[in-house]
Amino acid sequence: MIQEEFLHKLKEHWIKNDIPNISFTNARFLRDLIKIKQVKNMLEIWTANWFSTINFSFELKNTGWKITTIEFSPNSYNEALKNFKEAEVDEIINPILWNALDIIPTLKEKYDFVFIDGMKKRSKDFLELIWDKVEKDWIIIIDDVIKFKEKMQSLYNFLEEQKINYNVIPIDPDDWIIMIIK
Ligand SMILES: C[S@@+](CC[C@H](N)C(=O)[O-])C[C@H]1O[C@@H](n2cnc3c(N)ncnc32)[C@H](O)[C@@H]1O
Known about the structure:
The protein is an alpha/beta fold. It has helices at residues 3-16, 24-37, 51-63, 74-87, 100-103, 123-130, 153-161; strands at residues 41-45, 66-71, 93-97, 113-116, 139-142, 167-172, 175-181. Strands 3-2-1-4-5-7-6 form a 7-stranded mixed beta sheet, with helices on both faces. Strand 4 (113-116), helix 6 and strand 5 form a beta-alpha-beta unit. The mean pLDDT is 92. S-adenosylmethionine binds next to helix 3, strand 2 and helix 5.
């Protein structure tokens, strides 16, 4: 099955089951960033059923690089493993079934692209946890920063206090992201 067809099939299933995946427009934007930045080692915090992961993997597969992705729901994780195989991207994905808050401090690698998309009120904690794993000029993206802004006040405060430069980008009416180039 061709890649785009596969993604539409997944998305339809997840819309019916009310799973909060990123939009196609957002996926396209992030894939383009991965491509132009020639990303080598990506980290995704909060995967759900892997619509976003599979999108990113289709780009990373072209360059031969990889993605580590974290999810703590066994149901989502197991469904995802099936989808990775079907999409033929399982070899470049390192899926971790764990609470991201506990596992990130143990990760030893550096990541040139980090995507944060989960429990919105913990976004600031995740940014702090990954900060030392990202080097200068590398990319951090945080999703849903307007839709759930009231839950993310600690993140906005942290960005201001630490004087971190960031852009809020309106990807589409549903999905606005923060982009930080460290
Ligand atoms: C918004 S969904 C992710 C959607 C996915 N990025 C996509 O676009 O396809 C958030 C997911 O985060 C998971 N999650 C929430 N808190 C977590 C934690 N502390 N550690 C690991 N996973 C977590 C939930 O189980 C849920 O599946």
